[in-house]
Design goal:
The chain has about 750 residues and is mainly β. The protein contains 3 helices and 43 strands. It folds into 2 domains: about 60 residues, no CATH class; about 675 residues, TonB-dependent receptor, beta-barrel domain (Maltoporin, Chain A), CATH 2.40.170. The strands form 8 sheets. The chain has a 22-stranded antiparallel barrel. Strands 9-13-14-12 form a 4-stranded mixed β-sheet.
């Protein structure tokens, strides 16, 4: 069933006719001026629509929970109906975040096919998001479509961004659009923050008990102000989180780190004219995290400690305007992120000698990281077709230094990209995205560990074509297919900036000599079936993918140790590789009371020739080279489910969960870095959440929720123990069984 509303827009006055049984308010805010929002009372959903010109138009929206007509921006960097987008875009919105009670972005991303977030360290909580079976460094993380999420931010940033500030997350698998960087080989994750649309305020609190006894406390607020003439608005938000450490096996060493996070931010807009808009956003973040043993002592007096304090400033400004005919749109923007980090990676490692104490004092470090993205984009709308072109300049400066170990990364990356993409729509059934990027990247880096020093000084220009085809086979069935060429220049990525602990010693990563650029070719093809049967909405997606990698960057444990005992891993050009498989998703909403959705991935990831993982140095006759034929930490099967029952407007019950199949996980078993390859178990973690709200008055609402995460406690049970453990031997769900309650109070005009 659908409700259609006739809207007449004249300046700031809005006249609308609607079904008498539905009470709503329409607000005009956002560019272009024909962007409108409809907020229903007793509903958490805000519906949007766009028109080509000012005047009268019809707004049509689904009443079921599975929103087939949602507007997305990540497909073409222009607002487009999700169903009609030439590229598959999966969206994770406010309803899913509420259902899962996700606190940070990292906790919500698993609920999309082809996406898996994994925890990689017991001592610091390093996470990464994998798309279509590729490591996190192959994915491009965007904030409001801007590439300011640096390599350093990718180490811990997904756990630092609170879901409270997020409007939605859009995920594009593979590199089908020419508008995003050449390193978006696996795809893009676009984190879109909330816009001010109504005069509201809200204060909330969350209290969780990890494994039934470790507290996780959160206090947050947000508010929005919009002027009466809708020409300006502002939203403000803040969150404070305090989570205590958790030890899974009683050995005195953490499996979940102590975490204290305080974030404040704002997003403002002003419309100088009816055809222009200025947007400003800013976020300030302070985070302290620590793991290891004896967290009450100074780090250098413990056996193992990883302690980090991040101070991050992130912000951006954009100026968007369009012509009088609403056929040409322009955007000038600049975004910046700066992080100042104090770190400690080390400890006594079980020793108690004077030399052990001196070595432990060497592990303090400092990091300064800057990322800037500036650009200009122009969109020309023709009768059917759309031409999008632009230029973007990115700067990345990273200085990461641990003086005591003579470990230093001094890296500067400058990237200039020119792109053009033509959306050709000769008829209503067929469309094609034809585009290409010209990327010029300059990397100037010095990488030092102990007495090993490497240098990268490379300037490279590449042309990366992208092509996507879409054809409406029937009214309900659509085919999409695409090809994307990508490359990555030699540089330190997120995993290279993380220091793990092995055998009581730090394990450093360094780039090899003569490291060559890595190239990729990605192919996708999908069938998307959407159908409405009276009040029932259904959606089915089947997507195949194939990605080949040429000279992929591969991490090899060299078996070599520095004089101070540190282990060295080296990034080398590995054997060619391929990742292929299928993603699927099925969703059905019989009515606005019910939603069922599940999806998953079946895949294979393998090298063309056996790939060296550990290189023996010959000092130990019991240790030889270790070669692998498939990727490690990469399950062949994984998936998710999401279901929701809303029997009445004031109550809902959600069941969500993820499945992680078996995988090969490397575990370091000696102080030289020698490995054992372990096959993990499979996991299924199920979450339940019940939510109810009370309308204290017409404008004031109280919301309560209670639930349990990982109800069956499906969790890793073979962690390494003691001061010489391999802190990277972590797999499976991020949390054990966790109980939680939450409360929110708010007012809406």
């Amino acid at each position: 069933m659908r409700i259609s509303l006739l809207l007449l827009l004249f300046g700031s006055n809005i006249i609308f006719a609607q079904d008498q049984q539905i009470k709503g308010v329409v607000r005009l805010a956002e560019e272009p001026i024909t962007y409108a929002l409809l907020k229903f009372k007793n509903s958490s959903q805000t519906y949007t629509t766009y028109s080509d010109k000012v005047g009268a138009f019809v707004l049509s929206m689904p009443l079921g929970e599975y929103q087939l007509d949602e507007v997305v921006v990540s497909a073409t960097r222009n607002r487009v109906n999700k169903k009609e987008a030439p590229i598959i875009v999966n969206t994770l919105g406010e309803k899913l975040i509420k259902a899962t009670q996700a606190i940070a972005v990292s906790e919500s991303l698993n609920y999309s096919p082809g996406v898996r977030v994994e925890n990689n360290c017991q001592n610091c909580g390093f996470t990464q998001v994998r798309l279509n079976g590729l490591d996190g460094s192959y994915s491009q993380i965007l904030v409001n479509s801007r590439a300011v999420f640096s390599a350093l931010n990718s180490v811990y940033g997904l756990e630092q961004i609170p879901t409270q500030i997020i409007d939605k997350v859009e995920i594009v698998r593979s590199g089908g659009s020419a508008l995003y960087g050449s390193n978006a080989i696996a795809g893009t994750v676009n984190i879109i923050t909330k816009d001010p649309v109504l005069n509201t305020w809200q204060v909330g609190s969350y209290f969780g008990l990890v494994d039934g006894d470790t507290p996780d406390r959160i206090l947050n607020f947000n508010s929005s102000l919009v002027s009466d003439d809708l020409s300006s608005g502002a939203t403000f938000y803040g969150i404070h989180r305090n989570r205590e450490e958790w030890d899974a096996n009683g050995d005195g060493f953490t499996e979940m780190v102590e975490l204290k996070n305080t974030t404040f931010g704002t997003k403002l807009y002003h419309k100088p004219t009816d055809r222009s808009r200025i947007t400003l956003d800013a976020t300030v973040l302070n985070e302290y995290r620590r793991g290891g043993d004896r967290l009450d002592l100074p780090p250098h007096l413990t056996d193992i400690t990883e302690e980090l304090t991040h101070n991050t400033i992130m912000g951006g400004v954009s100026y968007d305007f369009n012509n009088a005919a609403n056929t040409n749109y322009y955007s000038v923007y600049s975004s910046v992120q700066f992080t100042d980090r104090d770190s400690y990676y080390g400890g006594l490692g079980g020793g108690r000698t004077a030399q052990d104490s001196l070595t432990a004092l060497n592990a303090y470090g400092i990091t300064k990281d800057l990322a800037v993205a500036s650009g200009f984009q122009m969109t020309n709308n023709f009768k059917r077709d759309v031409l999008t072109s632009g230029i973007e300049y990115n700067i990345g400066n990273t200085e990461d230094e641990i003086v005591g170990y003579n470990r230093n990364i001094d890296q500067r990356v400058n990237a200039l990209g020119l792109y053009a993409q033509y959306e050709w729509k000769p008829n209503t059934k067929f469309s094609a995205l034809i585009g290409s990027r010209i990327d010029h990247i300059n990397v100037d880096g010095i990488y030092t560990v102990g007495d090993i020093s490497r240098k990268v000084d490379i300037s490279q220009t590449t042309i990366n074509p992208r092509l996507t085809l879409a054809y409406q086979l029937t009214t309900d069935l659509k085919f999409r297919g695409g090809y994307a060429r990508g490359f990555r220049a030699p540089q330190a990525f997120n995993e290279d900036l993380h220091i793990s602990s092995v055998g009581g010693e730090p394990q450093f990563v360094i780039l090899s000599n003569n490291l060559e650029a890595e190239f990729s070719n990605a192919f996708t093809g999908s069938l998307n079936w959407t159908k409405e049967f009276n009040t029932t909405q259904t959606n089915f997606l089947l997507e195949g993918f194939y990605t080949s990698l040429e000279d992929p960057f591969t991490l090899v444990s060299t078996g070599a140790q520095l004089p101070n005992g540190s282990i060295v891993e080296e990034v080398r050009n590995g054997e060619g590789a391929k990742v292929y498989g299928a993603n699927f998703e099925f969703g059905v909403s019989p009515s606005k009371k019910w939603l069922f959705q599940f999806g998953g991935t079946l895949q294979q990831s393998e090298f063309n020739e056996p790939q060296l993982l550990f290189e023996a140095d010959g000092s130990n006759p019991n240790e030889g080279d270790i070669l692998i034929t498939e990727f490690t930490r990469n399950p062949n099967v994984y998936g998710y489910l999401n279901s929701n029952w809303t029997p009445k407007d004031t109550f809902s019950l959600s069941a969500t969960g993820t499945f992680t199949g078996a995988m090969i996980v490397p575990r370091v078993i000696s102080d030289s870095g020698f490995l054992d390859l372990v096959e993990s178990n499979s996991f299924f973690d199920l979450n339940l959440n019940a939510e109810t709200h009370f309308d204290v008055s017409e404008e004031f609402k109280l919301t309560l929720n209670v639930g349990i995460k990982n109800m069956f406690n499906s969790f890793q049970d073979d962690f390494d123990i003691g001061p010489t453990r391999d802190s990277d031997y972590v797999y499976g769900p991020a949390l054990p069984r966790t109980f939680f309650v939450g409360i929110k109070i708010g007012k809406m005009n």
